Write the structure tokens for this entry.
Amino acid sequence: MIANRGYNAYAKNKIMTASPAELTLMLYEGAIKFCNIAIVAIEENNVEKAHNNITKVENIISEFLATLDRKYEVAKDFENVYNYLMERLVEANLKKDKEILEEVLAHLRTMRDTWKEIMEQGKTAKAE
């Protein structure tokens, strides 16, 4: 119990001190984690666990949609991708369809990996 409180304090501090770029990366990581959990839950026929974790992924995608900076032209592309992912998540949740979640997961991983590259390029540019 005490170790759990220590981890919770560490996790909260990590979030509170993270840059916006790091927070975005954490959200992608969270969406990937919850999507993986939902896939396993479907394999185990645990409908409630699958639903709860798909909903967590939907909430993260909703956050991405809500925080898009629409002054940039690329925001429309991200909005289209996020809306597509939301549609697929709703369908996956209704059907408890593992294949749809695997598709969503592939998109999330690609977006996360691209975001990591952008963060690295930003660090390199600042160092020069």
